[in-house]
# Entry
Amino acid sequence: MKKLFFAALLAGFAFNTASAQDEEGTKGFAKGDVFMSGSVGFSSDSQGDTSLKGFTVAPRAAYFISDNIALGAKLGYTSAKEEEKGFDGTDEAKNSAIEAGVFGRYYFTPASQFSIFTELGAGYVHSKYEETGREDLKADGFNVAFAPGVSYFISEHFALEASYGLISYNSDKIDVDGAESRDRFNAGLDLGDINLGLVYKF
# Structure
């Protein structure tokens, strides 16, 4: 599923806010700072009698326990619905997932306007699949991911960031008798794993 992030909209908002602020304060992170970030995306696709729509929201927040290290928590919700029109009506299939997790980041030059960071995160995921005429399926699982990234402050409080999900491991199991867990490991250069976002530092 293609995700369209509002990076341009967020960047424009941040630049307008930055131009309205005085050039006081320090651009960068330090021990005791708190930041919030996240991503919002949607997708829409149609072909013939079949249409697919999806939505994702994923906020996160972190606290710097030292000048270089930040620890935080993240939430996420994803929903996708596919509809297919036929002679006897419309069939629907809906997949939704809720994620809660933690993450840690190490910033190599936190006090500067531009910094490179690495992130290691883990999360619990509960998903549900619904389809017309079939029993609902539920699954529980977890994931672990490593992602390098960059951060660039455009004002004292706002920064743009980009991260890349380079290595990840996912495991889940459908909640039915006799079901086996499904394990997936990914390591590669997939452009779909690039995430853009806006960070606000308190």
About this structure: The domain at 4-201 is CATH 2.40.160.20 (Porin).
